[in-house]
Amino acid sequence: MDSGPAGSEFMETAGVTVRVDRGLHVAAIRYVDPSAIKDVVTAVLGVEIPAPLRAVWPPPAGGAGVGECLVLWRNPHESWLISSDAAPSSAIAAALREATMACIVDQTGGIRPIRIRGRRRGDLLIRLASVASIPATNQALAGRWADVTAVAVGSSDDETILLVERVYADHILGWIRETLADL
Amino acid sequence: MSASRLPAPCGTRLDRTRSLSFLFNGRPYRGYAGDTLASALLANGVDLVGRSFKLHRPRGIYSCGVEEPVGLVDVGDGAGRTPNLRATLVELEEGLIANSVNCWPSVGFDLGAVNNLFARVLPAGFYYKTFKWPNWHWFEPFIRRMAGLGRASGLPDPDRYEEASAAVDVLVIGGGIAGMHAAAAAAEAGACTWLLSLGTRLGGGAAWRKDEEVDALTRRLGSLGVRILTRTIAFGTYDHGLIGACEHLAGARSGGALRERLWKIRARHVIAACGAFERPVLFPGNDTPGVMLAGAVEKYAHAFGVACGRRAVIAANGDGACRVAESLRLAGVEVVAIVDRRPRADCGLPPPVGVRMLTETAVARVLGAGRVSGIRVVPAGSEGAPPEQLVCDILLSAGGFAPAVHLHSQAGGKLRWLDESAMFVPDGPAPGLWSVGACAGVFAREAAAAHAEAVGRALALRTCVPPIPVGGAGRSRLSTFLPGLKGKQFVDLQNDVTASDVGLAALENYRSVEHLKRYTTTGMGTDQGKTSNINALVLLGELTGRDPAEVGTTKFRPPFTPVTLGMLVGRRIGRLYRPLKRLPAEDWHRAHGALLEHFGNWQRPAAYPRAEESLEVAAQREAGAVRRGAGLFDGSPLGKLEIFGPDAAEFLDLMYVGTLSNLREGQARYGLLLNENGILVDDGIVARLGPQHFWVNTTSAGIERTAAAFEEWLQCEFTDLKVLVTNITSRWGNVTVAGPKAWQWLAAAGFDAALAPGVMSHMTMKESRLGPVPLRVLRASFSGELGYEINLPADEVRPLLERLWARAGDFDAVLYGIEALEIMRTEKGYIHVGTDTDGTTLPGDVGFGRALGKKTANFVGRRSLLRPAALDPRRFQLVALAPLDGKTLLPVGGQIAASPPPTLTEGHVTSSYWSPTQGAPVALGMLSRGSERTGDRVLVHHLGSSIGAEVVKAPFVDPQGERLHG
């Protein structure tokens, strides 16, 4: 899942790279009850709504032939769908058109994905947040990052994705920039 | 100047091949790599290092560590100067600059020393009894100048600081023998273990003795993967196993480097191995330079190769004196005598060969002005006995030990008094924190090591933790004070608290040790009484007939040692001072001359001043231009929520004062949000997008609290409602176009004709597109003009601004900021929640009484509106105000009353602007019985002036609301 360098902001220091991936699509899948959405998500993405604090990766070309994406748990009534294109969320939106107990809300542009990779990723992360907020691989945790609430996803053993409200992205990136300079 | 360097093997911490130069009080000196500033000063024979706080008495280095009460210095120069550092902890660097504190013009000739002449009239608490007549403020500037010790530079700190977090199984605080054993055992048992050490190397008190066990333990810790942070001090224990620690990364002359790191460490188990402080003995003149703690003199000799004197006498009250005497003798320092207050039978080891042992003897006087040159001793308890004079150039104080129980106590642990050794020790573990070694009262090395190993292992394996084998400190005499001797006996060297000050407090019936501390200042200041607390409480106990256990200790609070504000602030300076919300097109606004200011945590344009224009002038111009032509406003901060679900309409009826469930698709309505007390907390516009789908605008500053309130009511009270609330403020930007030419402008920019005023009516919302960009366009207005609030994806805000601005010239359009909007909404009499309202405002107070009467359904806050206070006709109600002279701006906050204050207020002015449309001031205010008082004349009082005003009918502009429709 990588939208490529277009529209990205990039920082690098020995052992860590940080990139704002403006190309990623973010949508909030909202449901009164998980059962209201379970069949739709399974049919479209080929996975179930993730368990609390977890993230799941639908298989490439999942159930409905959608592109690469990630689904993460946010709260008992919400999961986020992060994808490299709009197809997965469009497919779910279409499936939910007549639904009354669930909906999908586009948050693309409102949430800035910041991808942090590299050997010294952990050294950067502990300078941004409490270790309790740093997710293991396949975990999705909300926490306080550089004094701002953000969601962190352990997307792989080598990458953490920070999902930050756009309005605060400059603040977190400024903090990261200064921290990297001292790392 | 009798100090000198001792040859190897003394000086185990030194690298004698690296000579370093430094300046102290402007004079050049030299030291070695490995020296502290204190050891280098002592080696150079600098006796006078600083002045005491109150009496400005001369003081020299007293200790060798974190407990130093008097060796305080300002280090560095210019912006990098750091005040009040303990010379005992400042590592010597090439070119280091240090200066004494609390003295002027110099430490040798200090005018403040005149205080010492008046010491008799400056006893404990004198300031509580003086400076009252004729007026405290006469004295205040002088006292403020006297307050404090060192001086901050007053310039921005050039250094950088950061914070980091960690989570461990076992955190060991203290890198001495006990701490090393505990950490090794915990790590061997499989626990993720960290070890914090204040020093640059491990081993604590044993490190400078070439101890093979330290080397072996260091290797063992390394092989076990224990993370060791040196130069790191744990300064506080907090809830749930959180430890705050400061890691020193750069030296005193860091010059813009990353200087300190704040560690926030969550530990499943904390082991405190913080050691103990030496307890001094009280005797007259015990603050003379050359009087030092015995253990410190020993450490200076062995670790730093400094003989603090050549002829030493040890004033003792405990068993450690003989060991120190032998240690110093081996280092090449002559020990003349041990003067012990105790009977011979109570003294422990015999004295070393050649050292006189004077038992049941006390120091009666310290000879020498600027430096110890000898002492007079007298038999203790034999008043009038002839004194004996001993020639010495250093006097060591060995009164026993005080375990460093600070972290244990901070964590909620209890203490017990150990009478034999006259010390407080932990009474079992504190919640989450176990003490080992000297800080637990275990002074015997083997016992401490074995206990520490057992504790580390047990905590790692979660088995039973063994009890503390307290002991090994030897005996120490409880009493420290010998009455009848002349001269000041200082209990607290930093704050000039003497034994007679404690006596005065006892005489005045101060019995609580906490009150003693506040009254006398003992235990305050940078050292927080690490060398004085026990003596103070023992003395208070003696004077009030209680034993120390009954007197107790003061509460130990973080920080354990002073920490820099820079470390606590970390990266939160400049742009990172606090998280500010940024507009999606902030750069575009900057490029167009925006004056950005903070509004409700957003950084947004206040106005777009042209050359030479003030903010006020720019706002007047912008507001006038909008009324004449059109204006462009970035409304992106406006709060936005999507409400979805089969019960969404019912839920919104419950949350807002107005009825919203009868909105048709596309219709929008203004609503007031109350809390459960009926207080107006937010307002906004609700639009219906579908049968169970609503769009809610909140105020810019109110989005978080509104979203939280919605969630709280759904989760806690209206649990049966099926509603989903999603905050979409960041996703959707907002560009507002207002003014009589607004639609012409939009039409020219390519907007759908279905949005024209003739097609789309006021207070409706339509989904539309501009090319591929989805739009949600709301016909609403906070300016009173024809207005279009165009909501669109945030990333599309800048392109739309550019697109519209390209055609602005055709419509006499301007960019306008918050200030112009405030002017226009005040002209229209529209409230701004938080500006015109406060924590007492009810909906009826702002003209929504009728809406309340019409709504029969329940809503949040309704019941509170039926309380007598809510129905009181004298309540403050929103009114419009105009100055009688037609030109004087009414001051915001000005009190409305019949006579100047102090008097019962009738109300106050909440919003006030010069109206470019009226050519006169306009204002809003809250006034008692305001709704009945149109036409009344009132007086507005502000800072001594009174302005006549009339209560007028709002709005000031366009009373029929015709301009809203274009």
Give a verbal description of the structure:
The complex is a heterodimer of chains A (183) and B (966). Chain A is built from 4 helices and 11 strands; from the N terminus they run E-E-E-H-E-E-E-H-E-E-H-E-E-E-H. Chain A has helices at 38-45, 87-95, 121-125, 166-182; strands spanning 8-13, 16-21, 25-31, 55-56, 69-75, 78-83, 102-106, 111-117, 140-145, 148-156, 159-165. Chain A is elongated, with a radius of gyration of 16 Å. Chain B has 966 residues and is of the alpha+beta class. The N and C termini of chain B lie far apart (92 Å). Classes of the chains: A alpha+beta (183), B alpha+beta (966). The A-B interface holds A 22, 28, 30-32, 77-78, 100-103, 105-111, 126-127, 129-132, 146-148, 165-171, 174-175, 178-179, 182 and B 160, 162-167, 258, 264, 266, 571-572, 575-576, 578-582, 584, 602, 642, 644-646, 692-693, 722-724, 726, 728-732, 793-795.
